[in-house]
Amino acid sequence: MSTIDKNGIANAIYTLADIGPDPLTGETITAKQRVKEIIEAAKLADEAGLDVFGVGEHHRLDYAVSSPAVMLSAIARETKQIKLTSTTSVLSTLDPVRLYEDFATLDLLSDGRAEIIAGRGAFIESFPLFGYSTNDYDELFTEHMDLLLKLNQNETVTWSGKFRAPFRNAEISPRPIQDQIPIWIGVGGTPESAVRAGRFGVGMALAILGGDPLRFKPLVDIYHKAGMEAGYSSEELKVGVTGHAYIAKTTQQAKDEFFPYYSNYWSYVNRQRGMGTRMSREDFEYMSSPSTALFVGSPEQIVEKVLRQHELFGHKRFLAQVDIGGLPFQKVAKNIELLATEVAPMIKKAISK
């Protein structure tokens, strides 16, 4: 068992590397600067003692990272202890062999710190880009996950499927330092995805971006039921919670500082999805209220929300996305500091009781 498991909840940050204008200055940083800031954020998280750092995959000009493995490899050389994961790898449109070998290489570079969170992604631009059809959305993911797990378990693999050429006695190289690379499935909110994660016996990373977290409890129950029926133990079936976060000295300060950036974030994300809706301050006040899933507030308020969710889900990881909406890097750095020095110790103390 890792120290993370013994300590209850691993605390992490992740980024999707969105490039948005600062709503207060109107300035937009370059992709080059965004990449530099992500590496610096990972270094700060590592030095502060956080457990995991994640990087997401997108194939759009308003995001800076299309290859988490490449980005995490750069981060591996600048960090020492923090685990490095994708958040997420869009498995439906990735070749599982290439994905596995890239992360096995990352594992060698990082002295055994590589992980993968596989998901279907929030956008579909990778399907035409890599020659896949969205009509095969679910089938692609299932087949690719099945192959990815076989690659993780075996040095030599014979395989055939529907969407790629078969191979026989193929040597999968390099092999990671870890016996197997930890693999999770990112789940947005569908029962089918929760069942799939359970049947595969991998971790489930829940994306909870708003509303009452209680509505996600059935997904966790379904996940555990499917996993146990597939023969996996409760120790093998791990849940992580991912969410947007902003921490300040007081809850009012956090809300006042974060609202312009959070409203800005949803404004451009909704435009990317073809919607023109904007977030009002009233909407934001509801989304950040004590009973909801948005982690905005004082360290004490964040801890209360994490612990409430832990009572519901028994999750092993809390992954906070703290760099959205054009948020200046100095505010991102302060959030990393507060998460590591105030939030994480309070969570650990509460869980240990």
From TrEMBL:
GO cellular component labels: cytosol
UniProt feature coiled coil, ranges: none
Single GO term (MF): monooxygenase activity
Protein keywords: Monooxygenase, Oxidoreductase
Superkingdom in the source lineage: Bacteria
Pfam families: Bac_luciferase (PF00296)
Domain Luciferase-like: 14-314
EC number per UniProt: 1.14.14.-
EC supergroup of this enzyme: oxidoreductase
Oxidoreductase found in the keyword field: yes
PANTHER family: BLR5498 PROTEIN (PTHR30137:SF8), LUCIFERASE-LIKE MONOOXYGENASE (PTHR30137)
Entry protein name: Flavin-dependent trigonelline monooxygenase, oxygenase component
